[in-house]
Amino acid sequence: MRYEKGHKESTRNRIIDVASRRFRKDGASATGLAGIMADAGLTNGAFYAHFGSKETLLRETLVNTLADQAARSKQDCAEGRGIEGAIRGYLNKDHLERSEEGCPSAALLPEIGRQPQSTREAYENGLLPYIKNLASQLPQPGTPSSIRRAIGVFGVMVGTLQTARAVSDMSLAEDILEAGIEAALVLARKSEP
């Protein structure tokens, strides 16, 4: 049976999309290939026509998800949301409750750290544009100190979201988010010595 032009690419993208959501929701280790392929409406055997391994699929999902995150961040910068808008846009109840649609860092960092170097490098390369977008919203954009502070702000944001997701009391989770917003804003607005 012949498929239309672009069918293989479309199928590959569908697998990446399903895997990305499943990895962020359930974790990469807990997500099996059979479940991904079933959710994509494909057989298990079809997986290997597109990817050599689950690790390759994870790397591809990280590349795509981080590129989307950086593009949204760049658009937010162009629209003038500013650093407070970026922080509040990240640390909110919707992001707290919808990990499958959110930041791969908050969902997967411990697992990414255990991946082979090629996957960690892909993560790093995908993360840097987002960090640079954050840094562009800080005082003295484009300087090494703004990049360092953007990394710090991002670390506060990710840690806050992970902590808020780990508690069962939604009121406490919302308090954690608000405390994280305050801490990230203090760091973002800190003047250089």
Protein model, in words:
- Helix 3 (54-78) runs parallel beside helix 7.
- The chain has helices spanning 7-26, 33-39, 54-78, 82-90, 93-97, 104-112, 117-135, 144-166, 170-189.
- The longest helix has 25 residues, at 54-78.
- The protein is mainly alpha-helical.
- The protein is built from nine helices and no strands.
Strand elements, count: 0
- Our measurement of the CA-to-CA distance between the termini, rounded to an integer number of angstroms, reads 68 Å
Radius of gyration: 18 Å
As residue ranges, the low-confidence spans are none
Sheet having the most strands = none
Strand content: under 5%
Overall geometric form: globular
Q: SSE order, as H and E?
A: HHHHHHHHH
Secondary structure class reads mainly alpha
Helix content estimate: over 70%
Number of helices: 9
Output mean pLDDT. Answer: 93
